[in-house]
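[agent] plan:
  1. take the single chain provided in the ticket
  2. run structure prediction with default settings
  3. attach structure tokens to the ticket
  4. add a short note for the reviewer (M.T.)
[agent] executing step 1
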Amino acid sequence: MILHAVPHSGRRSNQPWIVWLHGFLGNHREWQACEPHFLDWPQLSVDLPGHGGSADVPVRDFADVEGALRNTLKHHGINDYWLVGYSLGGRIAMYHASRPDVQGLRGLVVEGSHPGLVSEAEREARALNDARWAQRLMHENFQTVLNAWYQQPVFRSLSPEQRADLVAFRAKNTPKALAGMLEATSLARQPNLREPLGQLAAPFHFICGERDAKFRSVAAELSCSLTLISGAGHNAHREAPAAFSSALLTLFRHYDL
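[agent] step 2 finished; step 3 output follows
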């Protein structure tokens, strides 16, 4: 399987690729406000399974998604790259980076992403929660479900205008396809990646909105560097794209890309 993705050539041919992975309900356009800050780099903006142009790509689990990502990188001739992932995209990126046979990965940047649950009780609770959302996506009015999704505590920093903009943007997806991806990549089914992430040879960096208390706490558990985006919440790259891009540029330049 190959995922739909949009490539952009860079102004400097010797630069590694930036591969952008969006969050749940997003698509490759998620990063449009950030992409112009990185014109020196070749970029690939991916539609994850169940989303955008990859809505009809069926997956059963993380291994299927990661395999599709590998095939997509190979299809575009990408063998030297940074992975940048938000939320679900960050979880996919961490899973990919943790595979023992990954080659060509320059570094890993995740925004507001979870490395995996520890206890069985947490997994059971999350499985029930994600199953309920999947059922709602399949059987209820999509607009109603989206409005409810963005009322969750992790999105409390959004203004009414930001929330309305997100709902309008996300409404372009296909609810049934989203439900399948949600169940396939539930946090309940994700391995606890803390140990392999702690052993990464490549740089591992976490970016988090200053007001995203949940993921500030998550980042503190990980063996990674952390940048906080002032005034932003869980969706920092959309709430503060200039500050997010500046932080990413600083990171890349630190590694002399």
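[agent] step 4 note for reviewer: The first helix runs from residue 62 to 75.
[agent] ticket updated
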